[in-house]
Design a protein that fits this description.
The complex is a heterodimer of chains A (233) and B (122).
Chain A (H helix, E strand, L loop, with lengths): L1 H22 L9 H14 L4 H9 L1 H21 L19 H23 L8 H18 L7 H25 L23 H25 L4
Helix pairs in contact in A: 2-3, 3-4, 4-8, 5-6, 5-8, 6-8, 7-8
Chain B lengths: L3 H23 L3 H23 L18 H4 L3 H32 L13
Helix pairs in contact in B: 1-2, 2-4
The chains are: A mainly alpha (233), B mainly alpha (122).
Amino acid sequence: MIRRLFVILLLLGLGGVFAGLVAGYSPDDTLNLTARYYADHTAQDIGAANIVTAIIVTYRGLDTLGEVTVLFLTAAIVGLVLAQSRRKADAPQRPLPPSGELLTTGTRLLVPLILLLGVYVFVNGHLTPGGGFQGGAILASAVLMLLLTDPLLRIGHGLIAAIESTAGLLFVGIGVLGIVLAGGFLDNRILPIGDLGNLFSAGAIPIIYSIIGLKVGAEFSSMLATLAETEDL
Amino acid sequence: MAPLMAYIALTTGFVLILIGLYGALTNRNILRMIVAFTVANTGVNLVMVAIGYLHGRTAPILDAAVPVEQAAALIIDPLPQALVLTAIVIGVGVTALMLAYAYRLYETKRTLDISQYTELKW
């Protein structure tokens, strides 16, 4: 088919470009200037043991604010697009097969643990691999499990919206506090930096990342809830 | 043999991009196209992480294994990891959006075959 041929030709060209990139790639032996700056200055400037967290929350905190905004927009648009397809409360519902003993009991056991793990991951975001986005996704996976067990479960959109907007306002509020009390927007030094490696260290980073975790968890949960509430076709 | 690992990861990433694009261009089913896009997305993320990898170094987390004074000599580049973290989250959002639109498209024509949607064809 001529169509398929075009696709293969296009991909061959792209593959050639990629092959050139791989052939010309020489791995660095040392960090480049930017990375070296982060490696040398994170400990005394930010106080976060996890340098990736320091970059995301403080050095490039404004980008993260934008990223959270994009996520919020996505959740809002998913809700808007699917608004008219929402299943009516009194609409006839085809009977669903029971979700099974294993899933029901497993959910009852696991959901609190998953929520706990999510909170642990975002509270320790400045010390261990993890952080607000990962922790938020874990929180949302608990919601997903609840929805798998009972597809007709209705999760309060009011609660999700309240969590999300409070978290968003707090995030921006802490950022503005940074202008007033410290060096600039989203500066983490509004609180003492503390000792490297302690839970209460790195200034405002644990607080900001917890807020991000709650916000991301709420946004993902709202997407899941909206998708679950759409009518069967 | 030292930098072989970087090449493997880099090549895998590029191959994933190509597989994803092939799937998105040849499949007629919208759901399959969405899955193909996520495969390509994974490939892009893998390429970015592979570029930040330096042989024989460890994760950019300061602890007992990485003293602050020697951090610059021991860790890999943290910046691509931060970028990929962002990219993964945005990727989830984009996938959710695509699925929502796919649902609405299915509602209008009761089919997921992209060749049935000819309104914008010329």
